[in-house]
Amino acid sequence: MSPHDSIPTVTVSPRGAQRLKSGHLWVYRSDIARSDELPPGSLVHVRDHRGRTLGSALYSSASQIAIRLLTSRAIAEDELVALVRQRIDDAVRFRRQNVHDSDSYRVIFSEADLLPGLIVDKYNDLLAMQVLTQAFDREPIRQAVAEKMREHYSGASLLDRVDPHIRELEQLAPQESQVVFGEKTSTLFTLNGVRFHFDGLAGQKTGAFLDQRENYAAAARYAHGEALDCFTYQGGFALHLARVCGAVTAVDASRPALEVAEKNEQLNRDAHTCSEIDWIEANAFDLLKDYSTAGRQYDTIVLDPPAFAKSKRTLETALRGYKELNLRALMMLRPGGVLVTCSCSFHVEQPAFSAMLNAAAADAGRRLRILENRGAAVDHPVLAGVPETSYLKCMLSQVIE
Ligand code: SAH
Fold first, then answer.
1. Which pLDDT does position 5 carry in this prediction?
2. Where are the beta strands (DSSP E) in 232-354?
3. What is each CA distance from 43 to 111, 158, 169, 219, in whole angstroms?
4. Positions of the chain with pLDDT under 70
5. What is the pLDDT of residue 312?
């Protein structure tokens, strides 16, 4: 008996096979034609309806995404851990080569690193892992991840950050966030020379928005004068603007986020060109409406709202929301003023986002020069063929008149 005989097989429909052949890694449950008995989280071999092998994948018994392709080879169970270890090495090497001026970055980004179901973020000496699928919850795989992190980042601590909702969706037993190794659960970290607090076991779900790291630096290259940062969270953009602007106002609806932002401000005061940052707890939609109606003016405005379009269905409503925000911001920018506008909705594609911005500028009677069309930082790579890995848009523009 070959070692492969023990691996269950999944036959996918022609549509599922086409999806894999076009470079995607996912096959939905509706595209599974036939399968052996499949334990949750198992390694499976994938075949098309003609019986041709398409590769090896990880199976979920709960998710609509029934399988996530790992490799186009048919591998044996005892090769799985070795493959995961090698992919982790590759991911770490890529970040070491490409991330500069920061001690923090996403070490592993799931599909984008061909490790579908695993995220690891590095905040200085604190690593935070998130398991998103049944397969990565399996003990030998967890162990391999922990060992590799210890090997690559000696002296660091590793936390397992649990999103209860994700565990529930994957039908995994409830579990608390916990320390995997090391002592630390909080630390200070640096992005582009700007310092931040990170508390790995605090309520805030995501830690920092590491995907905006290079966009913070880009924004600071053009920012000037009086600045307004809407949806500031813990001050990501605002703290970068405070190094180059004369005045910074930052808005968020979350008080706990603003409390961390103020603590972050204290860490960076020495490098600030403005006096205190004005942190305002408010609904950004209301504030922008009030301020623009009152005729307030700024030289730099950042808009980085949460994902408005959670699904294709809500796309229209989402675009209306983006347009409202951008229109108000454009009305308030002085000539030469800079708008940094972001969307982290995967469903809002770049052309639609650009069209929204054009329409907002036309309605505001402003003419815009597009300075940069940006995406997520390099440690959040895009995997060709998997559009879901390309979700962040950050457009920098300047009001000409
Ligand atoms: N710019 C931030 C990330 C923003 S995340 C950074 O770079 O770190 C989105 C933020 O929007 C969250 O902090 C959330 O509290 C806030 N938020 C959501 N709805 C809001 C609203 N209507 N008005 C103001 N803030 C809101």
1. 60
2. 247-252, 278-281, 298-303, 333-343
3. 16, 26, 19, 44
4. 1-5, 203-206
5. 84
Two tokens, residue 280: 């305002």
| Tokens representing residue 14 in the block | 């022609």
The pick from 234, 239, 249, 252 for probing ligand 1's pocket by mutation, whose C-beta has the most ligand atoms within 8 angstroms, reads 252
307 CA to middle of ligand 1, Å?
A: 10
Q: Which residue's C-alpha comes closest to atom 10 of ligand 1?
A: 231
Q: What is the pLDDT of residue 1?
A: 40
CA of 290 to the centre of ligand 1 (A): 18
Give the ligand 1 atom nearest the CA of 209.
8
Query: pLDDT tens digits, residue range 261-285?
Result: 999 999 999 999 999 999 999 999 9
Residue 291 CA to residue 304 CA, distance in Å, equals 18
Tokens of residue 180, six digits: 């995997």
Give which of 271, 266, 268, 223 is closest to 248, Cα–Cα: 223
The rounded Å distance from CA 267 to ligand 1 centre is 21
Predicted pLDDT at 205: 55
pTM, two decimal places: 0.96
User: pLDDT, tens digit, for every residue of 303-315?
Assistant: 999 999 888 889 9
d(CA 253, CA 204): 14
- For residues 152, 156, 158, 161, the Cα torsion angle rounded to the nearest 10 degrees is -110
Measured CA to CA, the distance from residue 375 to residue 106 in angstroms comes to 15
CA angle (213 as vertex; 207, 214 as ends), nearest 5 = 165
| Catalytic residue, candidates 230, 245, 274, 344 | 344
For position 309, what pLDDT does the model report? Answer: 80
Helix (H, G, I), strand (E, B) or coil at 275: coil
**Alpha-carbon distance 72 to 145, whole Å?**
22
